[in-house]
Amino acid sequence: MRSIWLFAVFAILTSGTVAQKRGQHGPQGAPRGPMGGAQANPLIRKLLESRDKVKFTGIRVIQHLESDERKIVTERVWRDGHRIKTEATDGPNKGKIAIEDARQRQEWIPADNTVRTSPARENEFFLRFGRMGGFGRRPLPLVESDGGRIAGVMTRLLVSKGPDGKVEAQAWIDPVHGVLLKFQSFDREGRRNSYLEYTNIKFDATFIAGTFRLDKPGAKYLTPQDDLRRFARELGMKPYTFPPQSPWELVAVRKMELKGTKVLMQHFR
Length: 269
Fold this sequence. Notes:
This protein is mainly beta.
């Protein structure tokens, strides 16, 4: 299926008017299973082909963006192919549980006993790796080297650089299991804008029944559409978005402030 990411920005300008911007970014196409031409990077091929069958438990640290602030959170991870469960063990959302499969993602926030339901997100992450590795287009220049041990596992390191020679992304991949054990990317100023690293991992794990089921009696279930209406109301805006018959699916909504301008950002796919 053709996959396109869009973003819609609704801003409260100093004059009080509402502006809307729409742009397109990200790769097209959803690489799954055996794929790619002769130029496709074999490490990323392994990563993409393993994601629906690898099994493990582990601990990782990951960088989240909350209210425009980058925060590091530690998570426990359970993975059985396309089914993933994470639980935050520290930070302001300690105890938060997220469960995702090929269709949807659910996040339980213990502070207010809410469950946020949204479309699955992980595929978009792998789309970006597909683009990096040359699936569906010419591959980006990558430099491969020994990555050393991450969580006790030998890795290969892939480095992507921009036209100016600055490092844009680094990925440490387990070449045996096809698992991304560490990743970080940087903005144009060299600041790290995303980060993930496993500190412990155990492969071929077994899981008890119900591991990937979220059952929270009394919890209030919310969707991205609920967030859109609430955030728009808080910002004094109208909840403009694409109509239900549109091919674009609302994935997430968040409030931001860009150069003194209040912004409501909507992510679509």
